[in-house]
Amino acid sequence: MKKINAFHLKLIAIIAMLINHIGHTFEFEWNPPFWEFIYLVIGLLTFPIMAYLLVEGFFYSRNRWKYAGRLFLFGLLSMIPFFYLFEFYWPFFNPVNNIMFTLMFGIFMMMICEKVSQPILQAIILIAFIFVTILSDWNVFGIPLIFAFYKNHGKPEQIRKIIVSFCIAMFLLSIPENWDASGLDQVFSSLGILGVIPLLENYNGQRGYCPAWVKWGFYAFYPLHISILWLVRFLIFKY
């Protein structure tokens, strides 16, 4: 019997995200290989869960534009703190840097694909949205993962194939030039995405505990925890 509902999945996703972001926040100050491996592996649980629930929400939402609007709002609120926390060393400011924008564009992509049935046109749409979000969180993998879940919605037996395929792609694309400890962490941490398989395969399709404060709390957690982590690092290390 499947016992995991959407509330459980969201809770797992934000805990995994927090651990991953704590690791990245202080990676220039303290980043031993074992700890780096842990936060990279755990962090890979977050986006597949978000992408899967995004597709679920897309099919069951009463107003997709409002759904996208909420993501846009919290993407805007996260934009500046995300930059200062993760991209402070970049020579330019990227306005679509965080995961909320990746998810928002995922909704737009699905809305367009729903109107277009030809596979070749859907492939063109997919490529176009990959380019739009290539500088966002999860870059080349975010939109394709959303697309894969969208095309296989209602087919839970396909989850394993989708995740394994993305794991292989991430593993191959992360092979480093220098096989030092950090490089090995980057490569083998890609296996962490496999951990999402039993979670999604045991999802029962129910929303679970979802009062208004929980619904908005999951959105607000993203900009809030990023802002707090940046503030803590700034107070201690001045950047």
TrEMBL record:
Q: Which UniProt keywords apply?
A: Membrane, Transmembrane, Transmembrane helix
Checking InterPro entries in the record gives:
TraX
Listed transmembrane segments = 7-25, 37-55, 67-86, 124-147, 159-175, 216-236
Pfam families assigned: TraX (PF05857)
- Is Membrane found in the keyword set? yes
The keyword Repeat is annotated on this UniProt entry: no
Instruction: State the protein's name.
Output: TraX protein
